[in-house]
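in:
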């Protein structure tokens, strides 16, 4: 059977018929800059720690793992204290297989039939999927033209839609935009008294801040995790996949009030986090500085690349670049057929991403060599598409 083909006689849920599995293309090309990974592999010391920790737990694999993953939760607490100066306890953190699973658990616990969730477009394309999979209605409020959050419209949408979950993303994907604390606090304050459709009086929405890329923010910018002790309605989702350079380990976590964590514990699969995953994550936390060693460099590279992009032109107009606090840049703004630029790049061995509003493309920061290849390929691709357009216009 062809990959993706679903026999018509299978009782697939009606709302899933003709849906496609989500995911960026996994294509074997020399330069992969499409899924916002950290391009630097774990150090030898990290690899040795992983080997050691897995060797230690291997003889116990006949037993289920610690379902409450207490040692790992302590490591999340220590990391959040060090990285974000957030003072939390183990009952305020919770881990899962990637922050994707954290957010799915949030939708399973707080969404569901009769419930709604609100995000601010353009944003991460998985949110509507969590909503679909949990029968939660998905709504969006538009961002400002510069991709910052339109706080007034967002609050207006919360008032009108009465969601149980408000999804905010900082830095946002695909735009890279950070959410200022003053804006976040306005939304948190409003949600403390807002109504939730389909719930009893006195029930209020939770606000989820997806901080998958937070370690790439400008130094000195606070994380929403520092507000967890102040706002019982806040959940801050984090991941080891991006700055922490551990995408293959599949570890995400959330910082929130103990009440919110207890709700997630109701919907989690039994033993959702394998002993191997827990051991691998702990090995990563044994070497936090190694894992984060390239973050400063990637941040500098982002600024240099943004500057370079702004100096390039396409069809006579300079490229636009959305200001980013992340490890990727959304650029272009007027690629009238962005698919053609993407294809030309791919032909030259550089994979980027067609995502976000029309006219834009996204690239994540690779190694210095990869970024040199990106610059070469983009210049050549833009010239090639301009040429093709000129020829088509002359015919
Ligand atoms: C905004 C955002 N949140 C969450 C994730 C999921 O990350 P993971 O499941 O690897 O933790 C991604 C992945 O690209 C993302 O861009």
């Amino acid at each position: 059977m062809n990959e993706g083909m679903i026999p018509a006689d299978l009782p697939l849920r009606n709302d899933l018929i003709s849906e496609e599995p989500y995911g960026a293309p996994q294509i074997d090309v020399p330069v992969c800059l499409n899924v916002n990974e950290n391009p630097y592999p774990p150090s030898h010391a990290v690899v040795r720690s992983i080997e050691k920790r897995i060797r230690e737990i291997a003889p116990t694999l006949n037993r289920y793992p610690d379902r409450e993953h207490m040692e790992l939760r302590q490591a999340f607490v220590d990391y959040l204290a060090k990285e974000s100066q957030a003072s939390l306890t183990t009952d305020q953190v919770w881990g899962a297989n990637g922050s994707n699973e954290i957010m799915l658990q949030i939708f399973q616990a707080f969404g569901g039939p009769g419930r709604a969730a609100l995000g601010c477009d353009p944003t991460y394309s998985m949110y509507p999927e969590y909503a679909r999979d949990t029968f939660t209605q998905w709504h969006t409020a538009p961002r400002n033209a510069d991709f910052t959050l339109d706080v007034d419209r967002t609050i207006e949408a919360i008032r009108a839609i009465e969601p149980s979950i408000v999804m905010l993303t900082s830095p946002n994907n695909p735009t890279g935009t950070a959410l200022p604390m003053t804006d976040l606090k306005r939304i948190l304050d409003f949600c403390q008294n807002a109504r939730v459709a389909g719930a009893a009086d006195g029930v209020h929405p939770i606000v989820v801040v997806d901080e998958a890329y937070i370690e790439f923010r400008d130094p000195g910018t606070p994380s929403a995790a520092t507000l967890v002790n102040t706002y019982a309605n806040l959940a801050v989702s984090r991941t080891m996949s991006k700055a922490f350079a551990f995408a293959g380990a599949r570890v995400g976590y959330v910082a929130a009030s103990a009440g919110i964590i207890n709700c997630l514990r109701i919907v989690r699969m039994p033993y959702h986090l394998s002993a191997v995953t827990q051991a691998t994550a702990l090995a990563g936390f044994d070497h936090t500085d190694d894992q984060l060693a390239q973050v400063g460099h990637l941040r500098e590279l982002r600024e240099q690349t943004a500057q370079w992009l702004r100096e390039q032109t396409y069809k006579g107009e300079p490229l636009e670049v959305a200001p980013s606090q992340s490890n990727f840049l959304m650029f272009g703004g007027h690629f009238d057929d962005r698919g053609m630029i993407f294809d030309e790049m791919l032909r030259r061995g550089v994979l980027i991403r067609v995502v976000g509003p029309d006219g834009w493309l996204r690239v994540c920061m690779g190694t210095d060599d990869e970024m040199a290849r990106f610059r070469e390929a983009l210049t050549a691709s833009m010239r090639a598409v301009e040429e093709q357009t000129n020829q088509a216009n002359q015919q």
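note: DSSP finds twelve helices and 14 strands in the chain.
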